[in-house]
Amino acid sequence: MLAVHNLEVVYEDVMLALRGASLSVPPDQIIAVLGANGAGKTSLLRAMTGLLDIHRGKIVRGHVSLDGQELDTTQAAGVVSSGVSQVMEGRRVFVEFSVEENLRVGAHTRGSSGLKEKYERIYEMFPVLADRRSARAGYLSGGEQQMLAIGRAMMAEPRYLLLDEPSLGLAPKIVEQIRDLIVTIKDAGTGVLLIEQNAAMALSIADHGYVIENGVTVMDAPAATLRSDSDIQEFYLGGTEERSLRDVKHYRRRKRWLS
Ligand code: ATP
User: Fold this and answer.
1) Which CATH number fits the domain that encloses residue 141?
2) Ligand 1 in contact with 41 (CB < 6 A)?
3) How high is the pLDDT of residue 60?
4) pTM to 2 decimals?
C-alpha cells in the first residue's frame, strides 16, 4: 500500500499548498484525486515523488509510506527504484528522441537487462507505439505522446503509477483510449493514483476517490458514493453534463452572486 499521511507542503517557506492531505493507494485499485485549480493536487504528486525540491517546495509535516515503511521523498530516483513512477502533467516526452529511445529512458533505473522484453510488453499494451517505434516523439499526436509518457513510466515496471491529468487537452475519443489503458494497467497489477480535472472520466474507472480543497482532503469515499453525491454532481460533474473542474471556481462565485 502506498499512503500519504497528513502532508503539509510549503513553497518558498511561505506558500502553504497542502495543509493536511491523507490518502491510500492499494496495490490493485485506481484511486482518483479530484479538486479545483490550485487545490494542491500537483503538489501532492510532487511531494510523493521527490520533485518538490526543484520547485522550491518542501514537506513540513507528515510523510509518505510504502508498505508501512516511510518512503524517502527527498530523492526522485530513489522513489522510482522503490516502485513508484509518475507521469507529470503535460506529457513531457523527449521530442528529439524516437519512441523507443523515450521508452529506454524510462527503464534507466532497472538497467539494460531484459530491455527487449520490456519494449515488447509496452508495445503489446500500446499497439500504437509499436507502429511508430522509430518515429521521432515530436511527430506523434497529443494522444500518442500521452501514451508514450505513460509507456515510458511503465518501463520501470512500477508497483504504483501516479498520473497527473492524463486526459488534459485530448479529444473525447482519445480520452476513452487513455481511460481503457489505465484500467489495463491496473488489471496487470499496478496500483494507480489518478489526478484528474475530468471527474466523470476518473470516477467512471476509480475504485475510490478523494476530493482536495485548499490543500485539505475534504472527501474520502468509494467512487460509487462520490458519483451519486449531490455536491460532487453539482461542482464536479455538472449534473448530467460533464463539467471541467476549471469552471468550478467561476461556478461557485456565480452561485454566491446569484443567491
Ligand atoms: P492545477 O489543477 O491548476 O494544476 P493543483 O490542484 O494541481 O492545480 P497545485 O499546482 O498543487 O494545485 O498548487 C497548489 C497551490 O500551490 C497553488 O496556490 C499554487 O499557486 C501554489 N504553487 C504551486 N507550485 C508552486 C511553486 N513552485 N511556488 C509557489 N507556489 C506554488
Assistant:
1) 3.40.50.300
2) yes
3) 94
4) 0.88
